[in-house]
Automatic annotation (TrEMBL):
This is Apolipoprotein Db. GO terms for biological process: brain development; lipid metabolic process; lipid transport; response to reactive oxygen species; tissue regeneration. Residues 38-81, 82-165 form the Lipocalin/cytosolic fatty-acid binding domain. Keywords: Signal. Coiled coil: none annotated. It comes from Scophthalmus maximus.
Length: 170
C-alpha cells in the first residue's frame, strides 16, 4: 500500500469521528498559554459560555467542575442538560489524554481554553471554550476572549453559544 493510499484510508476511517468537530488541514497552531498559571485558583466550577463543536458535548446548561485528585491529576466532571496553562485531560472514556491549554484566566470570571489534536501533521482537530464563573458574561468579555483566540490563529467560524437559560443551580 502506498503512503498516499495509507493517508487517504486513515482519513476515511477518521472522518466519522471528526465530523462533529472542527478540523483543519495542517498541524495545530501553537497558542501562547497564561504565564504563572495558578491551578489552585482555577479549580472549581466553570460554566460553558461558548465552544467549538465537540462530539462529546451536547445540550444546554453545560458546566465543568475541576478538582484535584489525591494523585495530583485533575478530575473534570462535565454536566449539562441534553435534549433528543497546559493540562492533560480526557473528555471521555474513548479519547486519550489531550492538551488543555488555558490561554488566559482571571480565575474569578473568565477562562479561555484551547485544545488541539494533531493527526499525523496532515490535519488537526480544534476544541475551544469560553468559560465563566457565572452562566452569563458581558458582551465585551466575550469579544475579548474571541479576539484573543483569533490572534492565536484559532478559527472560530463554527463557535456556538451554549444555552445557559432556565438552568437549575446545584
Amino acid at each position: 500500500m502506498t503512503k498516499k493510499m495509507s493517508a487517504a484510508s486513515l482519513l476515511l476511517l477518521l472522518l466519522p469521528l471528526v465530523s462533529a468537530q472542527t478540523y483543519h488541514w495542517g498541524p495545530c497552531p501553537t497558542a501562547k498559554v497564561q504565564p504563572n498559571f495558578n491551578l489552585q485558583q482555577y479549580l472549581g466550577r466553570w460554566y460553558e459560555i461558548a465552544r467549538l463543536p465537540a462530539s462529546f458535548e451536547r445540550g444546554t446548561c453545560i458546566q465543568a467542575n475541576y478538582a484535584l485528585r489525591e494523585d495530583g491529576t485533575i478530575r473534570v466532571l462535565n454536566s449539562g442538560l441534553e435534549e433528543p496553562a497546559k493540562l492533560g485531560v480526557s473528555f471521555s472514556y474513548f479519547s486519550p489524554y489531550g492538551q488543555y491549554w488555558v490561554l488566559t484566566s482571571d480565575y474569578t470570571s473568565l477562562s479561555v481554553v484551547y485544545s488541539c489534536t494533531d493527526i499525523l501533521r496532515i490535519f488537526h482537530i480544534d476544541f475551544a471554550w469560553i468559560l465563566g464563573r457565572s452562566r452569563i458574561l458581558p458582551p465585551e468579555t466575550i469579544r475579548y476572549a474571541k479576539n484573543l483566540m483569533i490572534g492565536e490563529g484559532i478559527d472560530l467560524s463554527r463557535m456556538k453559544f451554549t444555552n445557559q437559560t432556565g438552568c437549575r443551580d446545584d
